[in-house]
Write a structure and sequence with these properties.
- With about 350 residues, the chain is of the alpha+beta class.
- The chain has 3 domains: about 100 residues, 3-Layer(aba) Sandwich (Rossmann fold), CATH 3.40.50.20; about 70 residues, Dna Ligase, domain 1, CATH 3.30.1490.20; about 140 residues, ATP-grasp fold, B domain (D-amino Acid Aminotransferase, Chain A, domain 1), CATH 3.30.470.20.
- Strand 1, helix 1 and strand 2 form a beta-alpha-beta unit.
- The radius of gyration is 20 Å and the shape is globular.
């Protein structure tokens, strides 16, 4: 098949750009893009790279590929991950992954949590705040739906741990107000404030659709590998600073050591979340246990990162390797799931 690969290339933030330092963190490096291209060519006749910029629509209209492997995160707006798939639907070009609606819902963490709650999929309690002058101390006394400290504070519309720093773990009203103020100022968007779940944390990779949906071996995050004094959250520092290819952390255990009952419960929670958001072909779902040991969804990643180098500690490829899949098997497995869905 003639395959196009859509992506956003990671760039450096320049002085004067007026952008957060981690603005391009969701985008892919050229090494990853080339690795995906080469993986596609293992099974398909062509793999044409199309950057998801303002010229992408015309390029795709001219190319008319048989299918698109979409890993474009988008750059601008709270529905940026939906932009490229919406173009493809207008052009009636098949593509991998979830619909524009599902991608937009997953990027808006509050809306995703509301959908999960409607379908009875466990997730942490939360509120959204875009007012840095909000008096959290008063609200914590007056609102019965407010939850106790500690809390987690993150940007509402970001992925790849953008805006989730070590200080996202807050323990008092003053820290909470400071972090909300920081997010609103730096990211120009509301903050999501969640109750902190104190149990073990896992990430679950899924591939397929319907009856063919498969859960790959579960990955557990080993917070004991972080430097002393660092909060036990998968922060920007943990993902991009402490854990480096030249000095990788032993931060992931895959397959996770789990009893059969807990393993089944985690897998069911992930699959229920996949269905609730009408996801397609693949997704990585982050799950953390609450104080009673029950799995709760904390993030859905329908455009998961797939760094090919094992030293990069990328979770989806790590789970795929544990399942016996090569990097090419992972990429082409996602394409095959989409082909079956489209009847190609």
């Amino acid at each position: 098949m003639r395959v196009a690969l859509t992506y956003n290339l990671r760039r450096e933030v320049k002085v004067g750009d007026n952008l957060p330092d981690d603005f391009y963190a969701e985008c892919d490096g050229i090494e990853t893009i080339e690795a995906v291209k080469n993986a596609i060519l293992e099974c398909h006749e062509t793999a044409v790279m199309v950057e998801a910029d303002e010229d992408a629509y015309e390029k795709l209209r001219a190319l008319r590929p048989d299918i698109v492997f979409n890993m474009a995160e988008g750059l601008w707006g709270e529905s940026r991950e939906a932009q490229l798939p919406a173009m493809l639907e207008m052009l009636r070009i098949p593509y991998t992954g979830s619909s524009p609606l599902s991608l937009g819902l997953c990027l808006n963490k509050a809306r995703a949590k509301e959908v999960l709650s409607h379908y009875g999929v466990p997730n942490s309690r939360f509120i959204v705040s875009d007012n840095p002058d909000f008096c959290f101390a008063d609200r914590s006394r007056s609102n019965e739906n407010f939850f106790p400290f500690p809390m987690i504070v993150k940007p509402l519309f970001e992925g790849s741990s953008k805006g989730i720093k070590n200080d996202s773990f807050v323990t008092c009203p003053a820290e909470l107000e400071t972090k909300v103020r920081s997010i609103v100022r730096e990211y120009s968007q509301p903050a999501l404030i969640e109750e902190y779940l104190s149990g073990r944390e896992f990430t679950v990779a899924l591939m397929g659709n319907g009856k063919t949906l498969k859960v790959l071996p579960i990955v557990e995050i080993n917070y004991a590998s972080l430097p002393a004094g660092v909060n036990h959250i998968y922060s920007y520092e943990a993902k991009w600073i402490f854990d480096r290819p030249d000095n990788p952390l032993d931060i992931f255990n895959c397959p996770a050591v789990l009893g059969e009952a807990l393993k089944n419960e985690i897998e069911k929670t992930a699959m229920d979340a996949f269905g609730a958001l009408s996801l397609r072909d693949w997704c990585r779902i982050d799950i953390r246990l609450d104080c009673k040991g029950a799995p709760n969804v904390i993030e859905l990643n329908p455009l998961p990162g797939i760094l090919a180098d094992p030293k990069e500690n990328s979770c989806f490829p790590k789970a795929a390797r544990a399942a016996g899949l090569t990097f090419g098997g992972l990429v082409n497995g996602v394409i095959d799931a989409a082909r079956v869905r489209y009847g190609l």
